[in-house]
Design brief:
Layout lengths: L4 H33 L5 H57 L1
Length: about 100
Amino acid sequence: MDIDPTRVRQIGGKIRQVGEDAQAFLGRMSGPAAALKGFAGLGTIATLRQVNTRLTRRTSDLATASKQHGGNVITAADNHVANDAAQKSAIDQLTPALGR
């Protein structure tokens, strides 16, 4: 199977970008979340606060996982290139010895 390391790195970057975008979203949501803390007693506000808390937690989890997995994909592409180079070097060293 032929793997294009450049394309894999680009895909890893896109996966990582999802995490960075999610992290930026969390930064923008801190204002509305703080405003909800000032309200008490209304059932609808309490429900909205719970939904916002869950959304924040899950978005944070997504951001962390996405950045980690994107980095892992990029590392895998780099490792693939290094492994190919090492295998080529080993074959190049063996080829003259086999021809003698």
